[in-house]
């Protein structure tokens, strides 16, 4: 009897050990597929977990490149370039995607009272932003070009699905919102492929799908605007959220120690000089976060907090020149300041 009992114990123990081995090796296999690629004028990273993760990522990259081809102002045959070439002349029929992005962009031009204005392109070109030959233009040149900056001159025709710019030489640039749209489209591709956990990073525009594999929220770092890329001022935990930041630290050039960055204030024609140096928007859809972050950056703390508090389901984290951090009420208690020199201000 004793021998049989011992054998039984050994067998049961062995089964347990085998089960533990199967369980742990299975768990180890739970890893993300990660791909990096260049598009939309920036480097992007997609990270997905699921049976069809590879397929989902392949399809996503194709979708992002399609969006770049349709909406890049740097591609001669993009739909945006065609609209610009036909300015003051005739309407341009565009795809559903481009029509949708322009429509959304105009919504955020209006909400920000023109701080975000996609007709800013002639001024952006003057500064040479986004290509070689960046320079400080003369104030006369700026004054001249500012006359044709006005998003109210964009005419949309829903039936024809066409876009028309009223005045010759007017040009639009959806660079301040297209990455957000692209991220939302990637998320849709992931969902269609049954992916439940993914991290979409399009040039720093973050969109998270679900939780991490282990069920915990994603931790997203908000760039310290005073440090180089990858050093954070604070972190936030999110599930199914978009986290988009506009800052002066990504694209800029310096002349005699003065920094000229790529976010232009449409009322002056010069890089924005509000009290904000980093504007982060947290929202469900990334197109909303991207459309708002550029405008909010220009509007400054007081106006921006007021505006974002009024928009349901959208929050903001603003970092100022004097290293203060302001957040909207929905973000209170949901972030951790990691940069020691930053001071949290809970009221304006
Ligand atoms: P990033 O492209 O670095 O993520 P943003 O989303 O803030 O940053 O967009 C900045 C881009 O938007 C600029 O490169 C420029 O093409 C365009 N832009 C600059 N100023 C404005 C503005 N006031 N309104 C709309 N678009 C702008
Ligand atoms: Mg933006």
Automatic annotation (TrEMBL):
Binding-site list for Mg(2+): 176, 290, 294
Record protein name field: FAD:protein FMN transferase
A UniProt-annotated Pfam family: ApbE
Catalytic activity field: L-threonyl-[protein] + FAD = FMN-L-threonyl-[protein] + AMP + H(+)
Transmembrane segments: 6-25
PANTHER family the UniProt entry points to: FAD:PROTEIN FMN TRANSFERASE, THIAMINE BIOSYNTHESIS LIPOPROTEIN APBE
UniProtKB keywords: FAD, Flavoprotein, Magnesium, Membrane, Metal-binding, Transferase, Transmembrane, Transmembrane helix
Coiled coil: none
Cofactors required: Mg(2+); Mn(2+)
InterPro entries: ApbE, ApbE-like_sf
GO molecular function terms noted in the UniProt entry: metal ion binding; transferase activity
Sequence similarity: Belongs to the ApbE family.
The keyword Magnesium belongs to this UniProt entry's keyword annotation: yes
Keyword Transmembrane helix: yes
Broad EC category: transferase
Enzyme Commission number(s): 2.7.1.180
Cofactor binding description: Magnesium. Can also use manganese.
